[in-house]
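The material for today's practical consists of a large collection of protein records. There is nothing in a record beyond a sequence line and a structure line. As an example, a complete record with its sequence and its structure tokens follows:
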Amino acid sequence: MENIKKQLTPKGILNWCLDHLMIILIIALAIFVQTQRPAFFGTANLISLLQFTTARLPMALGVAGCIILAGTDLSGGRIAGLTGYLAAIMGLGIFANQPIVALILCMLAGGCIGAVNGFCMGKFKLHPFIVTLATQLITYGTYLTISNSVQLSMPSTYASDFATKTLFSIQTGVRANGTPILTKVPMFVLLAVIVTAIMWVVWNKTAFGKNMFAVGSNQEAARVSGVNVLMTIICVFILAGAMYGYTGFMEACRIGTSTPTLGLNYENDAISAVVIGGVSFVGGTGKISGVILGVFMMQLIITGMTFMGISGNVVYIIKGAVILFACILDMRKYMTRK
């Protein structure tokens, strides 16, 4: 009762608004865009938002675990690019009719790169920024070398029969001749929901999840409590790498091709979304629901700028400002609690 009374004071309300200022500003931006472009909150655009959110959500979930460890991961986008290319190769080869096997192999490939990240950080005490920057460059260079920077189309069986197969359609309008306009909701939306549910269980209902938060809060205290810190760090980055591999496979299927630009800046969007969603760079704090909200909010910003006709060059400036502002708010929240 005392906590509720404290929160309802002017100071408490001000603190709450400051803690959630980024989300408040994004919602205000969305309302403004809606007043200028009434189709923004239309059914068709909301379905599009759902698709983009679920497409980017697995990568954000992977990055979130790394940030909970008070670290980060800059290699996610390039791992997605490499695994997207591997998916295309496998689809044109012996796994042409086995997309699930190809997906698992892509996740394993991403997990192997993640294991290298985690081992270097946990064993040699290297900073996550340096390690993941190095693996980002190595991964991208490997991709360019084996692909010769050539675009490779995904097999249609992967796209139409698995990732982009229509789950159901929703009527979003009517044509001049009276026929309905149907917008399709693809299979990868359901798959992302399943992956998110699995990650929720891992975070909240397993010893590994508890160890992850313990290591992120205080490594030394976790070690004294019997937690295998090195193995926890490695496993977090393996899981993150697997999520990047999943993203690479699904993105190649969704786009229909693997290109050198696949995965470009995906990790930046993921980091922005995760921080917006309340996962703290200080470590030990974060929720799956917050990550989902953060990814949706990030897509809301991108879609809103597109609706307003803002130049793609300016979009980079705004994304950078979002990351900086979100980190400032996160640090303010930490200092206030401290």
Observations:
- The mean pLDDT is 91.
- Residues 167 and 186 are 5 Å apart (CA to CA).
- DSSP finds 15 helices and four strands in the chain.
